[in-house]
Amino acid sequence: MLEMLSYGFMQRAMIAGIMVGIICPLIGIYLVLRRMSMIGDSLSHVALSGVAAGMLTGTYPVVTALGFSVVAALAIERLRRSFAEYAELAIAIVLSTGIGLAVVLISLAKSFNASLYSYLFGNITTVMPQDLWLILALGIVIVSGVFLLYKELFYIAFDEVSATLSGVPVKAINLVFIVMIAANITLSMRIVGILLVSSLMVLPVAASLQLAKSFKQAMLYAVLLAQGAVLSGMVIAYQFELASGGTIVLMAVFELLVILLFKRLKKDALRKVMM
């Protein structure tokens, strides 16, 4: 363990992983409550097309992925208003566009190589110093944004119509929130991978909702569970030379299964006592 931390790339990966383990559940809990979990998958596929565009043009792929994701996030918000009664269509439209664009750009760049593979599934050895600084800077912005807009996001998550009638600037806050989702996905792809980042936004939240008795508790538990999955997943990935993204997600699934089993055993024990 100590030997692992003596390497510069592991130090960068651990710091980046801790930040990713904070921002993913902070954003994810609002997505789950608003029943918008699939938006993560949609934007991650658009981020893939951004990475391919960066490789094609010789631009820093994280920046192009961030640009593509933000534009797609704004498009989803605009389409949600156009299809007010079928809001999920906006996510499906952007998802399809992202996949199609990514396939075309990858075929043009002929870059389905180790670099693109690391973006798809995450690789702790590829977190460069510029990645770490970007993750820390934008991560702090996202965390600050969530806490500054805590009350408004909470109100909108449970009842958007009432929030609008109460004078909450729902459109503006939705706009800021969806841009934060796009930034979150882009920042997390180095550690978890584009195809798995939405899992880290949802699984710790799903586990925390099984334990928490309030919204604040759910948020706290989700962050702690995400930290556990990220750190244990990165250690296992390093020790056994596995893809970090898949290992982290499997650890998050393991946590969820343990919590569900614990609740089941507790329920059975109480039933026996009552009998």
Key structural traits:
275 residues, mainly alpha, 81% helix, globular
Give a written overview of the molecule.
The longest helix has 31 residues, at 244-274. The chain has 275 residues and is mainly α. α1 (8-33) crosses α10 and α10 packs parallel to α12. The termini are far apart. The chain is built from 12 helices and no strands.
Task: Reconstruct the topology from this structure.
Elements: H1 8-33, H2 39-57, H3 61-82, H4 88-109, H5 114-121, H6 129-148, H7 150-158, H8 160-165, H9 170-188, H10 197-211, H11 215-240, H12 244-274
Structural class: mainly alpha
Report the helical percentage. Answer: over 70%
Total helical segments: 12
By DSSP, the count of extended strands is 0
| C-alpha termini separation | 49 Å
The averaged pLDDT comes out at 84
Strand content: under 5%
Low-pLDDT residue spans: none
Radius of gyration: 19 Å
Apparent shape: globular
- Helix/strand order, N-terminal first: HHHHHHHHHHHH
Sheet of most strands: none
Quick overview of this protein structure:
This protein has helices at 8-33, 39-57, 61-82, 88-109, 114-121, 129-148, 150-158, 160-165, 170-188, 197-211, 215-240, 244-274. With 275 residues, the protein is mostly helical.
